[in-house]
Design a protein that fits this description.
The protein has 416 residues and is an alpha+beta fold. The chain folds into four domains: 42-62 and 345-415, conserved putative lor/sdh protein from methanococcus maripaludis s2 fold; 64-73 and 269-340, Elongation Factor Tu (Ef-tu), domain 3 (Beta Barrel); 77-106 and 234-264, Beta Barrel (OB fold (Dihydrolipoamide Acetyltransferase, E2P)), CATH 2.40.50.100; 109-232, Helix Hairpins (Orthogonal Bundle). Helix content is 36%, strand content 33%. The protein is built from four helices and 24 strands. The chain has helices at residues 13-38, 109-169, 175-232, 355-359; strands spanning 42-45, 52-54, 56-60, 63-72, 76-79, 84-89, 96-97, 102-107, 235-237, 242-247, 254-255, 260-265, 270-277, 289-294, 297-311, 314-321, 334-340, 345-351, 363-368, 371-376, 378-382, 386-391, 398-400, 412-415. The strands form five sheets. It has a six-stranded mixed beta sheet, with no helix packed on it.
């Protein structure tokens, strides 16, 4: 007999219908997600909640604002060359001093003992070297004298031999006396080249030793002077003439070598120190012009030095007065002005605003009727008042320039 076939459950009409319904549901869900992600995210604000400006063709003024402080052009820091206990304080902050004037005196018994011991050893070494140098000179003089004596004896014996030889032939001189003269003459003639060679060798040796000896002697004398100067360093003197701006020492307190003791401002004038936003670090150049207002008057300065270290979002520059320095300047006086980074130029200009912080200058919201849409832009130079537009905007476009801090994921702003 035939046996009826049993269908698997997933091949039944009911299972197929269920699968088709599930597939349709997933497709609808994916479509809904796609539509949701593609939808424009919007935000509704009041007209009074935003700032709207117009893009225009205008002249861009390439400058950066300055807020500076008058500081001394030079400051000399005075540190302790040798530490010890403060014995005397001979000046105070605010005093005017001259170069070489004693300011502070220290007491240091251990340093004084060390100096005496080192001085004794150095003096002993110097004495030994000087004695050796004297001995070399004495040997040179003795060798020269010996050579002179040999030559003198040769000359004297030659004279005597010339007198004795005829007398010997005449029988007026004994053979022994004449032979003695000739023997002595031969002895000195043999001795002469030996002494010349000895003198030559010893002189070469002396000349080879003398530079090193003199160098070592000069080094010892220099070390002796430095050792003695250590005691002089216990009296701290003003390295330059000027005004003491910082000095706070009490008699009896101890200070270590290298510790800061005082600051002295020499009469070399003043400069202006100003902080500038790090955005402009790449465009600041020495020699650029600056105009500042100081004590109610305007002055022209030039950028003298740039300190590239960025701290708290700013870097520091020094500006020097281009003309005569004002006579009534005081340290700490505040000044405001602008640093010119480049020449004025025409272009598409957007007024600056807080939006730059939120967007980074990558996009803006451009008004179209009562809605503003996000638009990618490329911005160039900027100052506190203007932004140069390179692409993405045209004159006449109206742009929201208020803060974009809460608009990071917004594509459209509806205004009512």
């Amino acid at each position: 007999m035939d046996k009826p076939l049993q269908l698997e459950w997933w091949r039944t009409p009911r299972a197929r219908a269920f699968a088709m319904m599930a597939g349709a549901g997933v497709a609808m869900l994916l479509l809904a997600l796609l539509l949701w992600s593609a939808r424009e995210r919007s935000l509704t604000l009041g007209w009074n909640d935003v700032t709207i400006v117009s893009v225009s063709n205008d002249v861009f003024h390439d400058f950066v604002p300055l807020r500076g402080t008058v500081v001394p052009k030079d400051t000399i820091y005075l540190d302790a060359l040798e530490g010890g206990q403060v014995e005397k304080v001979l000046a105070q902050a605010g005093d005017r001093v001259v170069q070489g004037q004693p300011l502070v005196m220290f007491r240091n018994a251990q340093l004084q003992l060390d100096v005496l011991n080192n001085e004794g050893r150095l003096v002993e070494s110097i004495t030994q070297l000087q004695s050796f140098e004297t001995q070399l000179e004495a040997n040179r003089a003795a060798n020269a004298k010996t050579l002179v004596d040999i030559r003198f004896n040769i000359a004297s014996l030659e004279h005597t031999a010339r007198r004795y030889d005829p007398l010997l032939k005449q029988g007026a001189m004994s053979q022994k006396d004449v032979e003695t003269v000739h023997d002595q003459l031969d002895h000195y003639r043999v001795l002469l080249p030996l002494q010349v060679e000895t003198n030559k060798r010893q002189e070469a040796l002396r000349l080879a030793q003398l530079p090193g000896l003199q160098s070592e002697l000069a080094g010892l004398k220099k070390s002796l002077a430095v050792t003695r100067d250590k005691l002089e360093d216990l009296t701290v003197k003003a390295p330059v003439s000027g005004r003491i701006t910082a000095l706070d020492l009490k008699i009896g307190e101890n200070r270590n070598r290298g510790e800061r003791l005082a600051e002295i401002v020499p009469p070399t004038g003043f400069k202006l120190a100003a902080d500038i936003d790090e955005y402009y670090l790449g465009r600041a150049r020495a020699g650029q012009d600056a105009d500042v207002s100081l004590n109610g008057k305007n002055y022209r300065l030039k950028l003298a030095r740039i300190y590239p270290q960025v701290k708290n979002g700013v870097f520091t520059v020094d500006l020097a007065f281009a003309g005569a320095m004002p006579a009534d300047l005081t340290t700490g006086a505040a000044a405001e002005g602008r640093l010119t980074l480049g020449g004025d130029s025409k272009g598409v200009i957007l007024p600056a605003g807080p939006f730059l912080e939120g967007s980074g200058g990558d996009y803006v919201f451009v008004l179209d009727g009562s809605s503003a849409h996000r638009r990618r832009v490329k911005l160039g130079r900027r100052n506190v008042e203007q932004v140069e537009v390179l692409s993405g905007l045209k004159p006449g476009d109206r742009v929201i320039t208020s803060d974009y801090a809460n608009y990071g994921k917004i594509d459209r702003i509806d205004l009512h």
